[in-house]
Write the structure tokens for this entry.
Amino acid sequence: MNFDFTAPDYHELAMWEDHATLRFECADTYIALLEKLTALLGRQPELPDWVYDGVTLGIQGGTEVCQQKLDTMRNGGVKVNGIWAQDWSGIRMTSFGKRVMWKWRWNQTLYPELKARIKQWNQEGVQFLSYINAYVASDKDLCTEAAQHGYLAKDAAGNDYLVEFGEFYGGVVDLTNPAAYDWYKEVIKQNLIEVGWRSER
């Protein structure tokens, strides 16, 4: 969909769906509107206490870059509670620049000795954080494995639906399929949590 709010007297909404539902809500305050939205879509659980005790650094570039930036902040008297690094599974160079490699396995070349370093950081009160999404790069093994088991979302013709992301494609793990859901949960357990990523429930 494409929403254009630039005109002062009207708004343009374009959707590429045969059947779509739009929901409009109003409220006197932003908080009241947010309460309506989260009642519909779900509310995030309360954050753990450690989140409020220091800053979380967003860093890319590898284990040593993370350590250097952490040391710089702490030497400057800044309390750091976490490191958030999105490129833990490597990078893909495109004409847009560096993109995260959606293979969702620890890149030990970019992040050598990460498991030991995470343990060290945890002992120092610094959590290691990142993310994973439901896309798997079509040219990597997780996509192949998901396709072999029928775990990818399908297009209207029943073929695996591959999304174009600008110079690479990604399959979409079908999380509505209980078997695919369980499989991806194991991917998260083995490839993130067992390496030492912080897991909050």
